Amino acid sequence: MGSIVTVNLALAAGLLLVPWLGGDFLAWQIGLFLLYGVAAQGVGFAWGRGGFLPLGNALFFGLGAYGAAAVLKATEGALWVNLAAMALIALLCAALAFGIALLLFRGRMGSGPGFSLVTLALVLIAAQIAETTPALTGGFNGFSGYPPLAGLDPFGGLYPVIVALVVAVTLSLTLIERLPAGLILRGLVAQEERLELLGFAPHRVKAWAFAGSAGIGALAGSLYASHQGIVTPQAIGFMLSAELVIWAAVGGRFSPLGPLLGAVAIGWASSALRDTVAWWEVGVAAVFLLVVLLQPGGAMDLIHRGIARLGLTRRRRDAPPLPAPPSRAAAARGPLRLCDVGLSAGGIRILDRLSLALPEAGILCVIGPNGAGKTTMLNAVTARLPVQSGQITLGAVSLGGKATWQMLDHGIARKMQIPTVFGALTLRENLQLAALAGRMRGLDALRPSPLRWQTPPVARLLADPEVPLAAGLDKDAGHLPQGHRQFLELAMTLSPEPRLVMLDEPAAGMSPAETQLMVRLARDYQQQTGAAIVVIEHDMHLVDALADEVAVLHQGRTLATGSLAEVRRDPLVAAVYAGGHK
Ligand SMILES: Nc1ncnc2c1ncn2[C@@H]1O[C@H](COP(=O)(O)OP(=O)(O)OP(=O)(O)O)[C@@H](O)[C@H]1O
């Protein structure tokens, strides 16, 4: 916290010195690049933190600028009315962005080019409207003839207001990084699938990030109107959108200060050198290309690495853990039933009128030859693949039409066949995210204390001397060996205290000792919580050690259920396994 305040105070002091050292004209020039920099910070937030690239963020900068110009003209200098109106415009832009992102990201995984292209199309449309509606926007000539905010001189009094905006935005973005909201965003980029299984709706997380990005852009745009005294279609055009992306990339999109640095450095150098250095734009494009290819973290990444090499980074002290509040997943009730479930994908019938009733408590092992549809059954339950016929119910609740991220609130958690952990985060951060799962309420994402939550299942695992997690909490999860990764994913799966745990080949890639440990941990969890656990497994020793009951799947149908001894005696099962499968 202290370092955040120091950095922002230094930023404010450095920027406020500009008019003293360089005069009003330099401050006016820097003020413009700072406003562009704030808008680029919005782009950096969406791209670097949210993992999706908005190609048309000048839309919100322009809406902020035109909106503020119109308000300033209509109200003729009433300061508080103007400020309230500008804040309202920024909120409206954020709401617009939220809606756009929800529409585009809903029901889709990934943050691919579709979103970027739509935002590009939107800014092209907006620029066209601005050019062709002179009655509203002043057309090509621009919107002018309004007083600046509070009558502040763009060459004098407005500059401290711009600096205040810069510091407020930088401080907010830096603080968000230290709060659960920032961790959730990092989780989104690191492993969207796991985040969704932990009960976070990726499309909503992205929508909030895009709303923040748009609101920041609109605030910058609203001061730009006063700074320039005129708003032209360039303020809402594609060129500015592209420049915001270049500044964010070159300065460093992963850091709140990076885009600001990029905008001021490139913007100022461009204004000084564009007319004297031939091919200046080509040079900027070349730098952009080099950054994209060789230095994705931009200039701020180099600066951070330099600071780390000099040993100037302070290690954050870990505050003692707090008991986590009750989990919604622990309150869910009812046995899971699949009734005549049919599922086809890629033209292949995978589940063929599959019916299976799970016990409300105990361990059910699902076995069957390769390709029998075991993993697909879990995909159907967790809504990762759409079911075409039949019903899946949990107690009295139908799971039909629900999304993957809603499953945790129904008490369902899943460990994947290939362990999915947040590879770019430390083990501690992985467990912090899992502690938030199913427990966050209201404004918890914006409070620091939820990062200290510790859940009963994770506390037990960390205290267990055989579980290889407690010693390396500050290591990146991406460097864990396969066995340790399985335990980390198990810890994250159990952390929300789910009533129904689905473990897909939990011992894959493990040594015999690790496999034994996995069996013990699954058994312990079942006994401590009375939950139902479904384990998909090929290893019959493990099935023997774990199963209260066994279900055999074959060609997308339930072939037999009963104890392991019973299904072994079943002639149909014997025939399937004698057919050369595992
Ligand atoms: N999304 C999909 N699109 C097309 N085919 C799929 C899809 N998912 C699974 N399949 C196919 O469905 C069949 C069943 O796959 P599934 O992974 O459910 O089998 P499994 O019983 O878990 O096998 P294994 O024990 O080898 O993991 C396989 O032939 C697989 O290739």
UniProtKB/TrEMBL annotation:
UniProt-recorded Gene Ontology molecular function terms: ATP binding; ATP hydrolysis activity; branched-chain amino acid transmembrane transporter activity
Membrane topology annotation: Multi-pass membrane protein
InterPro entries the record matches: AAA+_ATPase, ABC_AA/LPS_Transport, ABC_transp_permease, ABC_transporter-like_ATP-bd, LivM-like, P-loop_NTPase
Claim: ATP-binding is one of the keywords in the record: yes
Localization: Cell membrane
Highest taxon in the source lineage: Bacteria
Source species taxonomy: Bacteria, Pseudomonadati, Pseudomonadota, Alphaproteobacteria, Rhodobacterales
Protein source organism: Pararhodobacter aggregans
Domain named ABC transporter: residues: 336-580
Protein name: ABC transporter domain-containing protein
Keyword entries, A-Z: ATP-binding, Cell membrane, Membrane, Nucleotide-binding, Transmembrane, Transmembrane helix, Transport
GO cellular component: plasma membrane
Segments crossing the lipid bilayer: 25-45, 52-72, 78-105, 117-137, 157-176, 207-225, 257-273, 279-299
